[in-house]
Amino acid sequence: MHAYRTHTCGALRAADAGNTVRLSGWVHSKRDHGGLLFIDLRDHYGLTQCVFAAGSAGFAAADAVRPESVVTVTGQVVARETGTVNPRLPTGEIELRVTEMIVQSPAEVLPMQVAGEERFPEDIRLKYRFIDLRRDKLHRNMMLRSNVISSIRRRMIDAGFMEYQTPILTASSPEGARDFLVPARNHPGKFYALPQAPQQFKQLLMVAGFDRYFQIAPCFRDEASRADRSPGEFYQLDFEMSYVTQEDVFNTIEPVMAGVFEEFAEGRGVTKPPFPRIPYDTAMLEFGSDKPDLRNPIRIADVTTHYAGSGFGLFAKIAASGGIVRAIPAPGAGMQPRSFFDKLNEWARAEGAGGLGYIVYDAEGPKGPIARNLEADRAEAIRLASGAQPGDAVFFVAGKKETAEKFAGTVRTRLGDELNLTEKGSFRFCWITDFPMYELNEDTGLIDFSHNPFSMPQGELEALNTQDPLTIKAYQYDIVCNGIELSSGAIRNHRPDIMLRAFEIAGYSAADVEARFGGMLNAFRYGAPPHGGSAPGIDRMVMLLADEPNIREVILFPLNQQGEDLLMGAPAEVPPARMKELSLKIDLPPAKPRATST
Prior knowledge:
Helices cover 30% and strands 24% of the residues. The chain is α+β, with helices and mostly antiparallel strands. It has an eight-stranded mixed β-sheet with strand order 6-9-10-24-23-22-19-12, with helices on both faces. The protein has a five-stranded mixed β-barrel with strand order 1-2-3-5-4. α4 (136-158) packs across α17, α5 (199-207) packs across α16 and α15 runs antiparallel to α16 (510-524). The longest helix has 23 residues, at 136-158.
């Protein structure tokens, strides 16, 4: 018999009754029923109930052992009596009558329990992550992650892609966040950067003739944490294709994404390819976001012209000054009590808005504070524009375009939840397309890239030379699922002349571009195929499939919100000798003064 196990803790069934077996695992829980002691023994594969009779060889050791100790038990498989079968366990028809138990590794008193559903503070969970990972839900999340990655690999290879690994130590690249820098010991004063994404390398692979590349790529960004973003590092399905249009990229990756989600959806609905294509301008108008949640059926309408010159002075003034008025229909809200509208108005004020005006439409016509000051024909035009029916309400957001349209999107989300309109148990995909190539930097007043600087502008060089930069669209696209951006992508700018001009508009000289992106720019001078790709986030995909609100629940060893690894103690100070070896000195900021009480 094997020294540790003949079976796993999830393997035994009724057909094994009568056999002598050996299991090893963690003591999940203990129950003392007088003359019998029950231990649930757990390993990666499952759980088996073990029974120790009073006076048996292993009873004393079993009675003394703490939960989460690692033990090896030997005994006979016995069919449970009918009334004691546990249908929730695959092993629930049997139990193991133990004749021998060896404690392989005793556990100290636990800082957190593994059995049960008790919630523990995040700092405890991260400091003792190796214990946290033993808990059933988190353990299943990590197995789901592994299976999702395996499925992605298989599907990408079946689609004709080959997997290549790109460098981790590289040069800095503008990807929208701060780099993590690594000092180069043999080159004092110089630094490597950990890649924010394999962007330039995957494009160089296309120039090198590899045609279809993919990688489950680690990416490193020194940026703040949030629910759907892990600080420090993350993984993405990075892929690139040669001789493709935007539609070719969509048609290639949609079956992969839909297939993976269908495989692990467990009965939840998944958008069938082709996914809806929504231009950026339409997304901002109808959803108030470039990450729309299509499970919510509400669509926003622009009603600025209907308020311009109207009797409702506040909105008329906003329209006259160049602002906008957005209408957010609320199906069935006309039947809600006044408290429903008051609560939403208070919420809007708490969000920093002046309030939330509304019109209620019923069989007798429009009602509410706005309707009393608005011409009847204008109220009817607003109803038609918003698609409202009798029994519905329409809410309004007004102000400067950049703030009003985003808050309208927030209101849309809130109404979808409040009115229980948002579809449950589904994954709704879409593409957001036609992003602006440039935007105006609010701080400097200068033109800057709004998305990926390596994207091909629509209209190419002619557009760059003849159009107002703020009107130029790019072949840039995002894939969104349930209101979460899974990836950004683009058809790339593969021509040096177009690239130099595109960067010039954003304030970069030719010398700047040569210095920062000379490797890729030079490669393009030796024959570069048209190419494009994208990079859906692995962590976010698993977060959606696991139905977890926080991305840390699908990452093995995440950093906390402050970017700290509480388990391994990182970041940590470096000994002076090591700093000298790296030609570095620390110049710490002044310590913040302590608050004093009076």
